[in-house]
Amino acid sequence: MKRGRRPGAADTRAAILAAARARFAANGYTGTKIRAVAADAGVDPALVHYFFGTKEELFAAVMTLPFRPTEILGPLLDEGLDGLGERLVRRLLGIWDATGNREPLVAVVRSVTGHDAAAAMMREFVEREIVGRLARALPAPDAGLRASLVASQVVGLLLARYVLGLAPLANADQDSVVAAVGPTLQHYLTGELG
Amino acid sequence: MKRGRRPGAADTRAAILAAARARFAANGYTGTKIRAVAADAGVDPALVHYFFGTKEELFAAVMTLPFRPTEILGPLLDEGLDGLGERLVRRLLGIWDATGNREPLVAVVRSVTGHDAAAAMMREFVEREIVGRLARALPAPDAGLRASLVASQVVGLLLARYVLGLAPLANADQDSVVAAVGPTLQHYLTGELG
User: Fold this and answer.
1) FRET pair for B38, CA 20 to 30 Å: which of B54, B60, B130, B175?
2) What is the Cα–Cα distance from B116 to B118, expressed in whole angstroms?
3) Half-sphere exposure of A101 toward its Cβ, with a 13 Å CA cutoff?
């Protein structure tokens, strides 16, 4: 039992998480309502918000993400599109290279690639909260394609460097990776797509 | 039982495959010798070559790959580095979009991202037979990093488009994807890495 948390609170939290996990799996990210999760867990919706905040934060808890993706993306977007590709790579490498983050993140990747239900949940979440949000910041008519191309290189970089451990990319210093991959993301964001 | 194959041959083939799977898992791709696989399966090494060809082909059979990666890469490299990025994307999309290939390839991706042993086998194989072979075709001193950057974008593209099904990349026509991603691979192959 965690220090400073009453048994009742821990039980309630666990019940909400279990209900949310089942709802996200059955109805997907978009189709899941906080109110339905609360009903399944036998608590008031206000309690779900009290413990977990927004639906995105609840999803991050269910997927055991060590951070909220939009917490990362929001501030980066606020600085504008200029140099966003490079800032994005640098921020992501900072997170994945940080002590304690690697293992839970690899677990998320495995769960997402390993199970249809997890893949579907994550796809909806990424489409809506990450690719969708990035796309809304882009002026081009092909903003959606651009944002999902960014996602493809980001996913591939994280997978190759951290999950597969593909040398020499896995051992390259952050600056070299930022210098190599930053312009690719910037190209997808604002360049001429041919 | 498959037509035209005697029971003895099917049993021998299965025994060799089982021995190879165990050896690759225990000793990795590089550390596995055909002769050790043959001994484990209780057959002559010549029989392993007769059924499966080279070690690479044996590995492809164990990983249930529907093709040999170097069969794809070799002819592409023979045409030279000019335009290789675009040709590589086009060829890969052609394979993954072909009927009957998608499901076994997704299964390989899941096995590789889901298990440490499979990830280690595949990493070694990719480092040696794909990234290594690509790197040897590049003149730059940072050829290894360049080849693994190519691998990161390829892996990410295949994962986003085929395993996660991330829209709109998942539904984009081949020409748009080739036009968008080809220049990225070409940049990693022969461009200025910054």
Assistant:
1) B130
2) 6
3) 14
ipTM: 0.81
Contact predicate A180/B187, CB 8 Å: no
Cβ contacts of B134 within 8 Å, gap of 6 or more: B73, B77, B147, B150, B151
- All residue ranges of chain A with pLDDT < 70 are 1-7
DSSP type of residue B29: T
With an 8 Å Cβ cutoff, is B189 touching chain A? no
**By percentage, how much of chain A surpasses pLDDT 70?**
95
Q: Which helix (H) or strand (E) holds A133?
A: helix A132-136
| Amino acid, res. B60 | A
Positions in chain B whose pLDDT score sits under 70: 1-7
- Neighboring chain A residues of B166 at a CB cutoff of 8 Å: 123, 126-127, 131, 148, 151-152
Would you tell me which residues 58-97 of chain A have a C-beta closer than 8 angstroms to some C-beta of chain B? none
Give B-chain residues touching A143 at CB under 8 angstroms.
Answer: none
**Do A157 and B159 lie within an 8 Å CB cutoff?**
no
pTM flag (> 0.90): no
Which helix (H) or strand (E) segment holds residue A24: the answer is helix A7-27
Distance CA A112, CA A110 (A): 5
Comparing alpha-carbon positions, the chain B residue that sits nearest to A155 is: B156
A154 touches chain B (CB under 8 A): yes
Q: Do B114 and A119 touch (CB under 8 A)?
A: no
Q: Chain B within 8 Å of A140 (Cβ-Cβ)?
A: no
Looking at chain B, list the stretches that DSSP marks H as alpha helix, in order from N- to C-terminal side: 7-27, 34-41, 45-52, 55-62, 69-78, 84-97, 102-114, 116-125, 132-136, 143-158, 174-190
Between CA A40 and CA B146 the distance in angstroms is 51
CA-nearest residue to A156 within chain B is B156
Q: Does A174 touch chain B (CB under 8 A)?
A: no
Residue B47 φ then ψ, to 5°:
-70, -35
Residues contacting residue A182 through CB under 8 Å, at least 6 positions apart? A83, A85, A86, A87, A88, A89, A90, B194
